[in-house]
Amino acid sequence: EVQLVESGGGLVQPGGSLRLSCAASGFSFTFSLMSWVRRAPGKGLEWVSTISNGGGTTDYAASVKGRFTISRDNAKNTLYLQMNSLQPEDAAVYYCARDRGGVVRGRGTQVTVSS
């Protein structure tokens, strides 16, 4: 059974940082391309970032490029998202996913950006 468990969300002030983690199990993480997607209140799923199975190739949505960094530790079956310079528009539930569309994703972790 595929399991994706996100953690690391919380409340942060504008300009602050958070690091999200996603523990993966039930599939071959090492051979899987992985993504982060998010859903802001009242909006649909938005793709955020994708990383290749080996970690050597990354891709970002224009809205987060230069502020967010995706990474992975295949030895730990864990995906990360370092988020810097957070803004109110980044507030959302963040999900790790096995695909860019977020069809196979975890339950998510809430990120709130507010002063």
Biggest sheet record? 6 strands, mixed
N→C terminal distance: 40 Å
| DSSP E strands, number | 10
Number of helices: 0
Q: Please, what is the average pLDDT?
A: 97
Radius of gyration: 13 Å
The ordered string of helix (H) and strand (E) elements is: EEEEEEEEEE
Uncertain runs with pLDDT below 50, 5 residues or more?
A: none
Based on CA inertia axes, which overall geometry fits?
A: globular
Strand order of the largest sheet: 2-10-9-4-5-6
Q: What is the share of helical residues?
A: under 10%
The helix/strand class is mainly beta
Proportion in β-strands: over 45%
Write the layout of secondary structure elements.
Elements: E1 3-7, E2 10-12, E3 18-25, E4 34-39, E5 45-51, E6 58-60, E7 68-73, E8 78-83, E9 92-97, E10 109-113
Parallel strand pairs: 2-10
Antiparallel strand pairs: 1-3, 3-8, 4-5, 4-9, 5-6, 7-8, 9-10
Task: Describe the structure in your own words.
This protein is mostly beta strands and 115 residues long. Helices cover 0% and strands 48% of the residues. The chain contains no helices and ten strands. It has strands at residues 3-7, 10-12, 18-25, 34-39, 45-51, 58-60, 68-73, 78-83, 92-97, 109-113. A six-stranded mixed sheet has the order 2-10-9-4-5-6, with no helix packed on it. A four-stranded antiparallel sheet has the order 1-3-8-7, with no helix packed on it. The chain is globular, with a radius of gyration of 13 Å. The mean pLDDT is 97.
